[in-house]
């Protein structure tokens, strides 16, 4: 017999599944980089506005996760993937099909919250934020149904969302204008976020191919995709070094380079194991940790400048 208490617990567990709770950790560190970027230039921290920006960013992230779960369930992809802790979706909806509509409702509600925060920023800072806002909206609504079918767009989408849109958008919301400084702060988040998705696609090639998706591990192979990942790491660390040399980032952002040995280790192991997918699973977790640590260090460097 299922009691109301156990039913509610099941619903809550399913909800935490289709919003992909563990992956939401990326949003606070990207928000911290955006806030740090603004603080490094102005020395001012508006706590109330930062709260609303964090709420909007988390809402957008939850929305895209829930939309992804919904559309992957409807397309049948969820029934074909081999899940790992870092790829293949949460598996929530195949085990709880009756919650599919709730996933869509959650995605829509969270998107509405993100849009509301966006309108608040427009009222506060003017229409300059609109291009980033529209790009963010496009990413949330069409990522699963459009971006994932074009290899280059699929690679760029996470970086655009978490780097260019989130970091630069938050910097603009706090300062009222765009800057090269904010672009340099956003580039590491852009490259590393795309790197997370790229590696997470390695175990999903067969399942993604079955529904017509196209991404780099599928179209250019694992070895070449590993090289692309190495290029993203170069962009992440190179943009910090160049930003410091061009006096666009403070010297304290050199803290970011402390994670470079871990990045080098992941890249070397990735190249050695491209033909042994089961050996790649630990690297997926290390790659997520690398991204969170690197962006946290970047945020610290911006705040202590």
TrEMBL record:
GO terms for molecular function: prenyltransferase activity. One of its GO terms (cellular component) is membrane. The keyword Plastid does not apply. This is 1,4-dihydroxy-2-naphthoate octaprenyltransferase. The keyword Phosphoprotein does not apply. It comes from Hydromonas duriensis. Pathway: Quinol/quinone metabolism; menaquinone biosynthesis. It holds the Pfam family UbiA. The chain crosses the membrane at residues 48-67, 99-122, 128-146, 180-199, 220-243, 249-267, 279-304. It is a multi-pass membrane protein. Keywords: Cell membrane, Membrane, Menaquinone biosynthesis, Transferase, Transmembrane, Transmembrane helix. GO terms for biological process: menaquinone biosynthetic process; vitamin K biosynthetic process. It is found in: Membrane. It comes from the Bacteria. The lineage of its organism: Bacteria, Pseudomonadati, Pseudomonadota, Betaproteobacteria, Burkholderiales. Its main location: membrane.
